[in-house]
Design goal:
The protein is mostly beta strands and about 120 residues long. Strands 2, 4, 5, 6, 9, 10 and 11 form a 7-stranded mixed sheet that branches. It starts with a strand and ends with a strand.
Length: about 120
């Protein structure tokens, strides 16, 4: 059974940093590309960052490029999102997802609130 559990969200002031973690289980983690997405209130879920199965290639939404970094540890079945220089518009529920072919499996999400 594929399971993804996010953690690390919380309340942070503008300009601050957070590191989100996603623990994966129930599948061959190293065979899956992984991604982080977010959904703000009243908005559609949007792609934030992706990383290939081996970790050799990453991509970012323009809105987070230069501030966020996605990484993974295939030995620990973990994927991370380091978020720096956070802005109020980064406030959202953040989800990790496992991707293979046409299949995408979601975690339950973790809330990130950027406010003074």
């Amino acid at each position: 059974q594929v399971q993804l559990v996010e953690s690390g969200g919380g309340l942070v002031q503008p300009g601050g940093s957070l590191r989100l973690s996603c623990a994966a289980s129930g599948f061959t983690f190293s065979s899956y590309a992984m991604s982080w997405h977010r959904q703000a209130p009243g908005k559609e879920r949007e792609l934030v960052a992706t990383i290939t199965s081996g970790g050799g290639s990453t991509n970012y939404a323009d809105s987070v490029k230069g501030r966020f970094t996605i990484s993974r540890d295939n030995a620990k079945n973990m994927v991370y999102l380091q978020m720096n220089s956070l802005k109020p518009e980064d406030t959202a529920v953040y989800y990790c997802a496992a991707n293979r072919g046409w299949t995408r499996t979601w975690g339950q999400g973790t809330q990130v609130t950027v406010s003074s």
